[in-house]
Design brief:
The structure is a homodimer. By secondary structure, chain A is an alpha+beta fold. Chain A has three domains: about 80 residues, Arc Repressor Mutant, subunit A (Orthogonal Bundle), CATH 1.10.10.10; about 150 residues, GAF domain (Beta-Lactamase), CATH 3.30.450.40; about 90 residues, Enolase-like, domain 1 (2-Layer Sandwich). The first copy, chain A, is built from eleven helices and ten strands. The first copy, chain A, has a five-stranded antiparallel beta sheet with strand order 7-3-10-9-8, with helices on one face. Chain A has a three-stranded antiparallel beta sheet with strand order 4-5-6. In chain A, a hairpin with a 4-residue loop joins strand 5 and strand 6. The C terminus of chain A is likely disordered. The structure holds a DNA duplex (30 and 30 nucleotides).
DNA sequence: GATTAGCACTCAGGTTGTATGAGTGCTAAA
DNA sequence: TTTAGCACTCATACAACCTGAGTGCTAATC
């Protein structure tokens, strides 16, 4: 059967109406929406065709039609018009970017929050995780005679620090010695390459009776681990309950629980090649997401890392609007963090 | 009217049954619970008395009784038996403490999560906020010719850092100069004392044409602000929906929204003098919490700061169990962070 | 005087039956 | 090919009814 232009118009009208109302839409309503060129009976015939093509379905005999997953897919791929962001919307997003994204450390979390506020859907944010991170340099700063600060910087330009106190005193010279030893022995190594063996050797070479080296190195290990570990942040969960499809607790609870237990990042889809991805209903791998849609976008955090932000909602979510906002935000984030241009307020360099 | 020993026993039985079941409890059930020494009719008489004393109430004529706010208050103050934590429970808490609390930075968030997991209620966590924080020292570390790291340490021993890139190159000597200038001019000052005036003077004195000083100082300001600003973290919101009183969306939604929009810490109660506080129903100030109970505990983060963790649940929450777990956890956290014993692995100092 | 058995009464919640209306599919006419 | 008309299907809302748990009161009992 042919997907005529009229069928496409009707399908689109049905989907957009359903996106708005969450109610099955009938032939009469569509006849009106299209502009009364044809009668509702004609629409009915067309709808029957669309249904047999698998693009629509009926919740029951005498209800209107609702889009099927295939229908949404067609809509997203071909029918959907690009949503133009209003000046207000872009301004709001820009403001969010300016205000919230000060600390790189908390980008993930913040990005999720912003997305959720922007879309009124629950959102999640995760980092795509780094592999093969290494420490680029160590710095030890003497604070008091029995306290110093470790500063480590990774090859991906992330800096972490910790204050260490000792049971006994330490001289500046000792610290210097330790510092150079660390920088010669433990830089450029991945997590796996830092073996207990290596530490023992270094400890011996330095004549380190205090176990200082292991203290500092274990901090470095912690940093490397935390960077390799991906974490997920979810936010705006309460938005879910505003949607008619989740007025029933039986529907809402499993999804809410799934999103709340944000332990395992593997459960959230990440876009591989494209900057943006739309997963409709059963296209999701996770069971709990089987009748929700997920829109994910990725952005460049710089230094080879990518961040991922996503929105979870009912299959009838307003794809046009969501994708527009999400991609605009992702671009903004890329601009902010990517290309080595960190959000420190610094300008472009070299 | 006298609150006889028998009345107290009955009241307690009613409250504990209601805490378990969330169903109004009838005379017969109580007669059984007490041990059938008396008949249900007697219980009925006693219950009528308790009701006229304002300790019980009826949802409607032919239902059982439920505790009133006053009833809960009496229970919490006098009737409640201390809940003994099982070995498993303490072990679980200790493990959570050991595993999760590695980074002081994320204590708040983590503490909230742990509480929520421990109690199966939504939890919130906030810091009591610091006042009059000052920078104790600056360190500038040269990374490349056009990049350096700022490390600032506050008088409360919190260390923060940031990587700064410059449009042009810089010599080690320049950085040294800047470093000493910062340490002589901008240490020991509170947020208010760092005026634009002062910055201009310093900039002039240093002949700082790059605006480097303002770059570094604005980072310092950011750090001070972030420490003074209190933030709230909520977690485990989905637990709310497991409770029968929030099976109805109309009840759950306002509360969920209230807890989700965790912007304003002022909306959450913090215990003033006592280490633990129980707020039952309308004893809460916030409207959205008027028919929930909140249990909060505070713990010592060290250096004069206190953290606050709390649990939100229905008025019929299991006060005995919750308070036991919460206070154990709070003590653990105090031990971990308080008394200058930071989780860095360092020991007591001076 | 305190306790108990018995009984009438109340009321939430579940079940059943019925009406309503939105929407459909099919057929015959335009 | 389109349209009007009609019979048919269901979800939903609503009223009527039943049931069972629980109460308050009264009169008998300890």
């Amino acid at each position: 059967m042919d997907l005529t232009e009229r069928k496409r118009r009707i399908l689109r009208a049905i989907i957009e109406s359903y996106i708005q109302s969450a109610e099955p839409v009938g032939s009469k309503a569509i006849a009106q929406a299209i502009g009364m060129e044809v009668s509702s009976a004609t629409i009915r015939n067309e709808m029957a065709d669309l249904e047999s093509m698998g693009l629509l379905e009926k919740p029951h005999t005498s209800a209107g039609r609702i889009p099927s997953v295939q229908g949404y897919r067609l809509y997203v791929n071909e029918l959907m018009e690009e949503h133009k962001l209003s000046l207000q919307e872009t301004e709001r997003i820009n403001q969010a970017l300016r205000l919230k994204m000060q600390e790189l450390d908390r980008v993930l979390d913040q990005a999720g929050r912003v997305v959720s506020q922007l879309t009124n859907y629950p959102a999640f944010a995760l980092s795509s995780g780094m592999e093969r991170v290494t420490i680029r340099r160590f710095d030890l700063l003497m604070v008091e005679r029995n306290a110093f600060i470790i500063v480590v910087m990774t090859d991906s330009n992330i800096v972490r620090n910790r204050l260490i106190r000792l049971p006994s005193d330490l001289t500046e010279a000792q610290l210097q010695l330790l510092n150079t030893l660390l920088n010669t022995t433990f830089t450029g190594l991945t997590l796996e390459e830092i073996t207990p063996e290596l530490m023992r050797v270094a400890q011996h070479a330095a004549g380190d009776s205090y176990g200082l080296i292991s203290l500092v190195v274990s901090f470095a290990i912690e940093v490397l681990e935390s960077l390799e570990r991906r974490t997920v942040h979810t936010s705006g969960l309460a938005h879910l309950l505003e949607l008619p499809e989740y007025r029933s607790l039986d529907r809402a609870q499993p999804l809410l629980s799934y999103l709340s237990e944000d332990t395992d990042p593997a459960r959230f889809p990440i876009p591989k090649d494209d900057p943006m991805k739309i997963l409709i209903g059963p296209e999701n791998v996770a069971d709990a997401l089987k009748d929700t849609s997920v829109v994910v976008a990725s952005y460049d955090i710089g230094d080879g890392m990518r961040g991922v932000i996503g929105v979870v909602g009912p299959t009838r979510m307003d794809y046009a609007k969501i994708t527009a906002r999400l991609s605009y935000l992702a671009e903004g984030l890329s601009r902010l963090f990517g290309r080595g241009e960190l959000p420190d307020g610094r300008d472009d360099h070299k």
